[in-house]
Write a structure and sequence with these properties.
Layout (H helix, E strand, L loop, with lengths): L6 H9 L4 H19 L6 H39 L10
């Protein structure tokens, strides 16, 4: 007998619960369906390794971009300091 897959089939089975044999069959089918749902698919080792490598690469890319941005910011700050006219303070004052 196939497993119960729709709510309509469950309703029909529960209506027929007056007969002990039908009730036992209905409970068996419901239990069989719930066991199939409990099965979980496992992620393969290759997929896990691929995910880890992708995450590491993304982190490295982010760090490189942040490093370059920080370096450019320092260069701009140094250029602005060099472009500003320097005030000459007379010696001895």
């Amino acid at each position: 007998m196939p497993a119960i897959t729709t709510t309509d089939m469950i309703k029909r089975s529960l209506i027929a619960l007056g007969d002990p044999n039908t009730a036992a069959q209905a409970l068996h089918l419901i239990a069989r369906k719930s066991k199939k749902k409990a099965k979980k698919t496992k992620v393969s080792g290759g997929a896990i390794a691929g995910i880890i490598i992708a995450v590491i690469i993304i982190i490295i890319i982010i760090l490189v971009v942040l490093f370059i941005m920080r370096r450019q910011k320092k260069k701009r700050a140094q250029q602005q300091v060099q472009m500003q006219p320097q005030q000459q303070i007379p010696y001895g004052q």
